[in-house]
Amino acid sequence: MKKIIVIAALCMSVFGYSQVHIGAKAGVNMNKLDGENFNSNFELGYQLGGFAYVNFSDFLGVQGEVLFNQTNTKIADSYKDIFDNAFKKNKTLNYVSVPVLLRLNSEGLITVVAGPQFSFLTSGNQSVLENGKKLFKKTDFAFVAGTEVNLRPVTLYARYVWGFSDVTDFGSKANSHQIQAGLGLRLF
């Protein structure tokens, strides 16, 4: 019985201190697919969405987001003869990404965030008869790490996203890499 009372008191103190904050964010998404079938240069895209976070203390919190990410890439020249007739060389992939991030120094000027991200392919403007969708897998799993500068209610953020999943269904393995920077606005 003592253990239950101690656990209940601990939970009440943590959740009694915590406060939910909600906001919107938008920014640039520099991305590339790292594989021999794709150009290795970063391509410009964008991302926008919303976030919610809960602080358990001034130092620790957790943040969830739902983001729309545009990923642009180009098929490498080595596959030119195969794909020029059926597919455009430039590819735009639209993902809905859901990162769940641990926030360190959550209420300070500089916040460090890190955690997993799961993304779903929503569309790929690929080509004739939608055949391009068959080139890319429908999900991507990644790790996110970055920093935020908190100028309440505005937040400036920068992060790097390392993709662990193979995102292509043709040729050799390809992983996504993204550099994201942008602005967040905490609504409350």
Automatic annotation (TrEMBL):
Residues 19-168 form the Outer membrane protein beta-barrel domain. Keywords: Signal. The keyword Flavoprotein does not apply. It comes from the Bacteria. Residues 1-20 form the signal peptide. This is PorT family protein.
